[in-house]
Amino acid sequence: MPIINLKVSGHENPALAKKLATVISNITKDVLNKKPEVTVVTVSFIPDNLWFINSASLAELKTKSFHLEIKVSDSTNLKADKAKYIETVHRSLTSLLGSIHPVSYAAIQEMKADAYGYEGLTIEYKYINNQKK
């Protein structure tokens, strides 16, 4: 189901990465109703001096930022769910990371069920097979 790629400004921190992955997984389960057992989270750290907003580095701006991309099956969430997810991600990451620049993004990418899958099977195939049971 969902794969989540989270980029966070700052130096690599495995303990923080684990905490971020846990928080993001929980939000994804609670707000978007996605199964934790098939949710994947990758966390990457980008040094503050290599992250730029309007040509100024986060080191210069003395702030943090993040960029979250999540891929989910098309049409499985309502607009209100997606808006709540983006708001909850921003609030939670602000709480964990501290001062967050307003230009910190969360993007929900909706993938067509016939073009997305795991275990070598499309989500569409899994959905149809589950309906037959």
Task: Please explain how this structure is put together.
- It is a single chain.
- By secondary structure, the chain is α/β, with parallel strands linked by helices.
- The protein has one domain (3-132): Macrophage Migration Inhibitory Factor (2-Layer Sandwich), CATH 3.30.429.
- Helix content is 39%, strand content 28%.
- It is built from 4 helices and 8 strands.
- It has helices spanning 14-32, 58-61, 79-97, 123-132, and strands at residues 3-9, 40-46, 52-53, 56-57, 66-73, 105-111, 117-118, 121-122.
- Strands 2-1-5-6 form a 4-stranded mixed beta sheet, covered by helices on one side. A two-stranded antiparallel ribbon has the order 3-4.
- β7 (117-118) and β8 form a beta hairpin.
- The longest helix is centred in the first third of the chain and has 19 residues, at 14-32.
- The protein is elongated and about 55 Å long.
- It starts with a strand and ends with a helix.
- The mean pLDDT is 95.
